[in-house]
Amino acid sequence: EIITMNQKLQIISWIICSYATIFICRRSFSYSTPQLVAMNKLDKYQIGFLSSIFSVFYGGSRLFAGVLADIWPAKTLLAATLVLSGLVIIVFSILENFYIQCAVWSICAVVQSFGWPAVSRMLYQWFDQEERGRYWSLASVSTAIGSIFIAIFASYVSVHWGTVYAMAIPGSFAILLGFLLYFIAPNHKIEHRNEHESNGTKSSNDKPWEHFKEDILHNPLLIQCLLSKVMVYIASGVYEDWGLLYFHSVGFSTLEAGSIHLWVSIGGVIGSILIGFLSDFLFNGRRDYISFLFSVLIVISSVAFYFIPNNQIVYSFVFFMLGFSLYGPMTLSGLLLIENVEERSIGAVVGTSGITSYFGTMLSGYPIAYFVNNFGWGHFHIAGITSSVCIMLLLFNISRLSGGKEKKE
C-alpha cells in the first residue's frame, strides 16, 4: 500500500513532538536545579548523583529497550513512554525524600530508554531507504528543540511558580500527548514493509558473540569511534548539565542564566542539520573529515569560554558555538560507526554505542560535582577543555585510519 506524503508529514510531526516532549520531561529537572539548590532542597552532590544514576539506568536499559521495540507496535510503545514519563516526573516533582527521589528517577530513566528505539522503528516502517536519512535528521534534532523550549519555560516557571510546576506541567502534557498519539496518529499498515532491504543476508547459524568480538572489539577504528562518542557526551554533559549552575556562580540571575544556556541548544539544532549536508555535499559521505573539523571548533570554543570576560552576550555567543560544534559530531557519531562496521554487526554496534554514550554522560555527573565542590569551578573548565581535546585527537586518528569507503546497501 502506497504511503502518501501527507501521512509521512503527519508521522514525522508526531515523532518530533513526542520525542521532544519526552526530552522536555527529563530536562525539566535540570532546569529546576538552580532553584532547588537556592531553596536548600538539593545540593550539588545530590544533583550530580541523580544525574549519574539516570545515565546508568538509561544506558543499561538500551539493549532491552531495543528488543522490546521489535516486539511491541512502535506507536504503542512510544505512546506508553510518553504517558509513563509524564506520570513519573509528576511523582518526582512532589517528593522530598532524597532516597525515594533516587528510586523514582531511576524508574524514569528506564521508562525513557524506550523512546528512541520506538522512534527508530517508526522511521524504519514509514519511510523508504532513499528518503529515511532526511527524516532521521529531523527526528534527531527534536531533543535540541525540546531543550530550547524547556530552557525558557522551566527557568521562568521555577522562579515564579515553583519547581513542582516546572516539572509537573511538562509531565501532564506528556500524558495528554501520549493518549492523543495512540488514538489519533495513523497506524502503519505493514509491520516490515521494508524487509526486502535486508536481502535475507542473515543466517540461522550466525554467532553474534563471535561477530561482536571480530567486528567491534578487535577493530581499532571502531573502538576509537566509541571512545570519541564517550568524550563528546562528557563535554556535552559538562556544559549542558553544569552550565546553569556555573552562570549562577559568576553572578547571573536564574532568568539570565537560562537565557544564556538556551543558546547551546539553538546552536545544536543548526549544527546537527548542517553537518549532515556538509558531509554529503562537500566530503562525499566522509563523516570522519567533517567531524574532525567540528572538533577543532569544540576546542576553540571551550578554551574561549575559559578566557572570555563575564558578559552575557559573549557567553551566549560562545555557548551557541559550543552547541553548534558539539551536536554536529554527536549526530554523526552513530552514522560513522555504522559505516565502518560489517553489516552483520550493525545492531550490535548501535546497542554498544547507546551504552557508551550514557557512560560518558554518567562521567559528567557526580565526578564533576566532586571536583567542583572540593576544588572550585576551575575544574569545570578543565573537564570541558580536556574532553574537547580528546575528541579532536581521536577524530584526527579516525580520519587517518578510515579508508573512507561508502557502505554498500
Topology:
Blueprint (H helix, E strand, L loop, with lengths): L4 H26 L2 H6 L5 H17 L1 H10 L2 H21 L3 H15 L2 H12 L2 H12 L1 H19 L2 H22 L23 H10 L2 H30 L4 H28 L5 H21 L4 H27 L7 H18 L2 H10 L2 H24 L8
Number of helical elements:
18
Helix content: over 70%
Number of strands: 0
Morphology? globular
Please state the CA-atom Rg, rounded to the nearest Å: 21 Å
How confident is the prediction overall: mean pLDDT? 81
- Specify the structural class: mainly alpha
Major sheet size, sense and barrel closure: none
Sketch the topology as an H/E string, one letter per element: HHHHHHHHHHHHHHHHHH
End-to-end span in angstroms? 23 Å
Percentage of residues in strands: under 5%
Uncertain regions spanning at least 5 consecutive residues: 190-205, 404-409
Structural features:
409 residues, single chain, disordered C terminus
Provide structural commentary.
With 409 residues, the protein is an all-alpha fold. Helix content is 80%, strand content 0%. It contains 18 helices and no strands. Helix 4 packs across helix 7 and helix 5 packs antiparallel against helix 7. The radius of gyration is 21 Å and the shape is globular. The C terminus is likely disordered.
Quick summary:
With 409 residues, the chain is mostly helical. It is 80% helix and 0% strand. It contains 18 helices and no strands.
